[in-house]
């Protein structure tokens, strides 16, 4: 987790990292697909001997169906 926070490619504080049975699970929400890929890169560099399961998500925002109505 510390490596993910310290690395300038990632720099995410809100990630959850768990190690279970030789696998490293990383979850949380990140702003871009590029940041999600960087998490994989950093984790594999730091612990190349384990399987990295990147379960992070990039939120998808859709436009509202019509004009926003203010009241």
How would you explain this protein's 3D organization?
- This protein is an alpha+beta fold and 71 residues long.
- It contains two helices and three strands, in the order αββαβ.
- The protein has helices spanning 2-6, 33-46, and strands at residues 16-20, 23-29, 51-57.
- Strands 1-2-3 form a three-stranded mixed sheet, with helices on one face.
- The model has no long low-confidence stretch (mean pLDDT 87).
Offer a quick outline of the entry.
This protein has 71 residues and is α+β, with helices and mostly antiparallel strands. It contains two helices and three strands, in the order H-E-E-H-E.
What is the topological layout?
Layout (H helix, E strand, L loop, with lengths): L1 H5 L9 E5 L2 E7 L3 H14 L4 E7 L14
Parallel strand pairs: 2-3
Antiparallel strand pairs: 1-2
Helix content: 25-40%
User: How many strand elements?
Assistant: 3
| Overall outline | elongated
Spatial arrangement of strands, main beta sheet = 1-2-3
Given helix and strand content, the structural type is alpha+beta
Mean pLDDT: 87
Low-confidence stretches: none
Radius of gyration: 16 Å
Our measurement of the CA-to-CA distance between the termini, rounded to an integer number of angstroms, reads 45 Å
Task: Characterize the largest beta sheet: strand count, sense, and whether it forms a barrel.
Answer: 3 strands, mixed
DSSP summary: helix tally: 2
Strand content: 25-35%
> Can you write the helix and strand succession as a string?
HEEHE
């Amino acid at each position: 987790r510390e490596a993910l926070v310290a690395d300038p490619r990632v720099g995410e504080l809100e990630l959850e990292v768990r190690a279970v049975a030789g696998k490293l699970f990383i979850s949380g929400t990140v702003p871009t697909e590029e940041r999600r890929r960087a998490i994989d890169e950093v984790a594999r560099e730091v612990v190349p001997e384990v399987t990295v399961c990147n379960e992070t998500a990039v939120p998808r925002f859709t436009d509202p169906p019509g004009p926003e109505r203010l009241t």
